[in-house]
Write a structure and sequence with these properties.
Elements (H helix, E strand, L loop, with lengths): L4 H7 L12 H5 L1 H16 L2 E5 L5 H11 L5 E5 L6 H4 L14 H11 L6 E5 L7
Parallel strand pairs: 1-2, 2-3
Length: 131
């Protein structure tokens, strides 16, 4: 007796299609995606955070860092101060070379190094509000 093609195929083990691994973005943001899923990550990536600094602003900068690492869309720092000696001991994103320069500029420069996926940033300083 001749077996039909269907019965031959039924006897062959079926190999599942190859699985595709996670994308680079999924690998990078794995912890966040597990926590708040793709919709939460998308909301973060579409967000724009404004930090109004008065004083050293170390708490605000730390919070901003914790939003930049998981991929906040963009941020703005409004700070009219220049970097002073006392800033160096409390703001991790300032160095000796930052002394006398606009604190918003210097902080933004280092924050943006943390995550190249942060698409844009702005820093405003001085009483006129122009960068």
């Amino acid at each position: 007796p001749v077996e039909s093609d269907v019965s031959i195929m039924a006897k062959r083990p079926m190999t599942p299609p190859p699985l595709q691994g996670p994308t680079a973005k999924e690998k990078k943001y794995d912890r966040q995606l597990r926590l708040w899923a793709a919709t939460g990550q998308q909301a973060l990536e579409e967000a724009h955070v404004l930090l109004l600094n008065s004083g050293p602003g170390v708490v605000g900068v730390e919070i901003l860092k914790n939003l930049i690492l998981p991929g906040v869309g963009s941020f703005t720092i409004v700070d009219e101060a220049e970097v002073a000696e006392e800033d160096l001991g409390i703001n991790f994103f300032l160095t000796d070379e930052s002394l006398g320069k606009p604190r918003a500029d210097e902080t933004c420069n280092y924050l943006t190094e943390l995550n190249p996926d942060v698409r844009e940033y702005q820093q405003l300083f001085g009483r006129t509000g122009h960068a």
